[in-house]
Write a structure and sequence with these properties.
GO terms for molecular function: ubiquitin protein ligase activity; zinc ion binding. Belongs to the NSE1 family. The protein is α+β, with helices and mostly antiparallel strands. Helix 1 packs across helix 3. The radius of gyration is 20 Å and the shape is globular. The chain starts with a helix and ends in a 22-residue tail after the last helix.
Length: about 240
């Protein structure tokens, strides 16, 4: 009969295997996995303990399971992240050089946009900017694959944004390469591409963070920046 330690290790192994296979799991997938591992799905503490113990076991391999929140709808995800290797270079084992170049161009346009999204036609036009010309039909297939692999997502209007997987796995890459464009959420300090911006001081807040903040403030919704504090959505009146 297995002792308690071997049981825990087996759970960690099966837990990790799912992340190695898919890269990222949403809440529903995590609950299904916990059920298979005989871990109570209604206990947040049990999940946190499993994530923590698994992370301790895989830390020597520069891997870590991190929790992330989808910027637009607040959905929770868990993602396996390499803490050392450059994320973009690691993707070279999955995508061709041309596909990676197109992905970089897509990231650049999304990060540089005002609302953290670009339209499908604008995305397809990026094929003219890559070194090896890619046809529009092929490019659409590549974008569909990026979406299936959960690097990007499309809203109901067909606009493309970076998914929580990109924000988690490419966090340092985005901060290093696009530091002049990237803003961090004033509440949670994570990268914020989709969110509300203060009309007066320009700070940015995730939609979910803003909802939580303003629900505590009541009717008077003010900017959380100490040097601002104006009513959210309004400019400070100049005297």
């Amino acid at each position: 009969m297995e002792n308690e330690e071997s049981k825990v290790n087996l759970k960690q192994q099966k837990f990790l295997q799912s992340f190695m296979s898919k890269g990222i799991l949403d809440t529903k997938e995590v609950k299904t996995l916990l059920t298979e591992l005989n871990v109570p799905t209604d206990s947040a503490e049990e999940l946190l303990n499993l994530v923590h113990s698994t992370n301790e076991a895989i830390a020597p391999f520069n891997l870590e399971i991190r929790k992330g929140i989808q910027e637009d709808d607040g959905a929770n995800f868990y993602c396996l992240v390499n803490t050392v290797e450059t994320p973009i270079s690691r993707l070279s084992s999955t995508y061709t050089q041309s596909e990676l170049e197109l992905f970089k161009k897509l990231i650049e346009q999304i990060v540089d946009s005002e609302d953290g999204k670009i339209g499908s036609l604008a995305a397809l036009s990026l094929t003219d900017k890559v070194e090896k010309r890619i046809g529009k039909e092929e490019a659409q297939e590549i974008f569909d694959r990026f979406e299936r692999d959960k690097w990007i997502r499309k809203d109901r209007d067909g606009k493309i944004s970076l998914s929580v997987r990109s924000l988690l796995e490419l966090d340092q890459y985005l901060k290093d390469v696009y530091s002049e464009f990237i803003k961090l959420c004033n509440i949670c300090s994570k990268i914020c591409l989709l969110g509300d911006t203060c009309a007066n001081c320009g700070i940015k807040i995730h939609l979910k963070c803003a909802k939580s903040l303003f629900s505590r403030q009541g009717e008077k919704k003010t900017c959380p920046a100490p040097d601002c504090r104006v009513v959210w959505g309004q400019m400070r009146t100049k005297v």
